[in-house]
Amino acid sequence: MKKTLSHQALLTYLLLISVAVSAASCSSGNDNDPLANALIQSDCERCPLMIPVNSGEFQMGTAVAERLIDPRTGSPATNDEPQHAVSIEAFSIGIYEVSVAEFAEFINATKHPTTNKCMDFSKPGGFTISTERSWQNTGFIQSGNEPVGCISFYDAQAYAEWLSSITGKNYRLPTEAEWEYVARAGATGPYFWGNTESNACGHANVRSTGADTISKRQIEADKAGFPCDDGFVHTSPVGSFTANTFGVYDMQGNNWEWVADCNHKNYEGAPNDGSAWAEENCQFGVIRGGSFLNLVQRSSVSVRAGRPRSGAASNMGFRVVKGTAAAELITAVAWKDETNDASGEGGQLFNENCAACHQESGEFQGLYGKGADSLFTAIKFGGNNVMSMPAFGQRLSDADIRLLVNYVLIQNGW
Predict the structure, then answer these.
(1) DSSP state of 25
(2) Number of C-beta neighbours around residue 272 at 10 A
(3) Residue 60 has pLDDT above 50, yes or no
(4) CA nearest 383: which of 304, 279, 280, 293?
């Protein structure tokens, strides 16, 4: 059996790395960095290492003239506009993504029932939504100090609530604005290290040679080659790459990270005070930062993706923050067990493909509406709505999608 570090050994190891990096940063003329000498703390033996973040203001999102082209589509994303000024209050953030070992401590203590389906990308040329995949079995071998994957929003939130209960402190998921503020760490370009994709591999675990194919359009994009090779096909141990100037690791790449906000098509009407953009009965959340499966352009500091909060994928994890602002209170929506007994082609397609539709009857609300054509668009093309994660247009025929649409309409009484 493969041995992994104990949690205490892991924390000690990571703390030594952090101190070494901080010392190196100071000796290289980084004395003006307000966080270079910040005290990294852990509130308990099982708690993640946290670093304080000073209050400030930054430009959130991307200016039109600075949009990156997505190599898969040949077009830029538009869900990170308009660029706008946001004020941030002081808080603390985990210097690493929550690791497998840290999440295991939570599961052992609470017996929390994690999400029962996870998107698996190991199948050549595509993906599957599997009941065999979980945070303990993502489809590839992980050590205890790699970022936990196959995590839904509700799993991540439950972990933060557990930390709060055992420490008496206010742990929560970062708001989207807090996340981007830390990811940028003062940078104004697409990456915290600058504007050059070829420098990515010293700073982030992003898509490179040998990565799982994901989709047909990703295969086509990969033919153009990669700007560099970071040496990891899957996740890397947390802290393997250079920290940003705030002393935080892996904000770009490794795993996507859940934030507290509900998903919106763009930033029109977004709050400018750093709070979470909440919504009643929110079912679609936001993940940030890209992953080991995503090209560097899809792992920029401003890239955002909408995902069903009940969904999970092998490249989706999280990190926590600690602060005085109250987190949005969300009640987890149970998976729709009735669909397991669904008969007919539409029901079978649903069970085999739709990790995101397991909501209580009548509660699903896609950004494109509840009509047949709107649902067809959401399922086929995904995008910011992503009723399905990701788009199913390359794995299902239009006829199959229509069957799936009809099933969803009937199930929800629309």
Answers:
(1) H
(2) 13
(3) yes
(4) 304
Within a domain: 372: yes
Closest by Cα among 48, 43, 329, 322 to 171? 322
Per-residue pLDDT tens over the stretch 81-125: 999 999 999 999 999 999 999 999 999 999 999 988 898 887 776
Q: Each residue of 164-188: pLDDT tens digit? A: 999 999 999 999 999 999 999 999 9
Q: Based on the number of CB atoms within 10 Å of its own CB, is 161 exposed (0-12), middle (13-18) or buried (19 or more)?
A: middle
Assess whether 232 and 117 both reside in one domain. yes
pTM of the predicted model over 0.90: no
Residues 303 and 354 in one domain: no
- In terms of domains, do 264 and 348 share one? no
Pick the last residue of a domain from 322, 352, 386.
322
Total domains present in the chain: 2
Quote the CA–CA distance of 392 and 287 in Å, as a whole number.
19
DSSP letter, residue 293: T
Report yes or no on 345 lying in a domain.
yes
Residues 306 and 381 in one domain: no
**Mean pLDDT score of the chain, rounded to an integer?**
78
Provide CB contacts within 8 A for 402, sequence distance 6+.
376
Do the Cβ atoms of 144 and 123 come closer than 8 Å? no
CB count, 10 Å around CB of 321?
24
Cβ(246)–Cβ(102) under 8 Å?
no
The answer on 344 and 300 residing in a single domain is: no
Asked if 225 and 317 sit in the same domain, the reply is yes
In a domain, 328, yes or no: no
Tell whether 56 and 94 lie within a shared domain. yes
User: Residue 56, SS3?
Assistant: strand
Give me the domain span that covers residue 398: 337-412
Query: CA torsion 383→321→314→301, rounded to 10°?
Result: 50
| Spatial distance between the Cα atoms of 279 and 306, rounded to a whole number of angstroms | 14
Report how far apart, in Å, the C-alpha atoms of 174 and of each of 25, 88, 294, 339, 410 are. 26, 12, 22, 33, 37
The answer to whether 79 and 261 are in contact (CB under 8 A) is no
Q: Is there a contact between 18 and 247 (Cβ–Cβ < 8 Å)?
A: yes
| DSSP for 166-178, written as a single string | HHSS-EEPPPHHH
